[in-house]
Amino acid sequence: MDVATARMRLESMLAQIDRSISVLRGDQDAGHDRSLADAGADLTDADRTRAMLDAAARQRTAVLAALRRIDDGGYGRCVDCGTSVPEGRLEARPEAARCVPCQARAERRR
Ligand SMILES: [Zn+2]
């Protein structure tokens, strides 16, 4: 995948993430307006919304970092070991910052 294609895909991902974040934030605000009597019943919904917002924020950070790597000329190389990230992996996840073994290691560290 060439860098121009990667940038295009990342930018459209970013737009999509921003849209879902504003929808999720809207849901969250709507939750606040409901009466306290409903609060207990809405707790799981609120938790789910928060979890989705967290995931969207993490994804957004990853996409922004990938766009920065495109600018720096480091896109497509693993940020940990410097080998090139396989094409198929970038096709599936254009925001991927690491090769598969380094990603697995990073996730175990978490
Ligand atoms: Zn690596």
Structure description:
Helix 1 runs antiparallel to helix 2 (36-72). The chain is built from 4 helices and no strands. The protein has helices at 3-33, 36-72, 87-92, 100-109. The chain is globular, with a radius of gyration of 18 Å. The longest helix has 37 residues, at 36-72. It has 110 residues and is an all-alpha fold. The chain has a domain at 3-77. The chain binds zinc ion (ZN). Zinc ion binds at residues 78, 80-81, 83, 98-99, 102.
Kindly summarize this structure in a few lines.
With 110 residues, this protein is mainly α. It has helices at 3-33, 36-72, 87-92, 100-109.
Amino- and carboxy-terminal Cα gap = 29 Å
Q: Can you count the helices? A: 4
Q: How can the largest sheet be summarized?
A: none
Low-confidence stretches: none
Mean pLDDT figure: 90
> What is the ordering of alpha helices and beta strands?
HHHH
Rg is 18 Å
How many strands in all? 0
Q: In what range is the share of β-strand residues?
A: under 5%
Structural class from helices and strands? mainly alpha
What is bound: which ligands?
zinc ion
Shape: globular
Helix content: over 70%
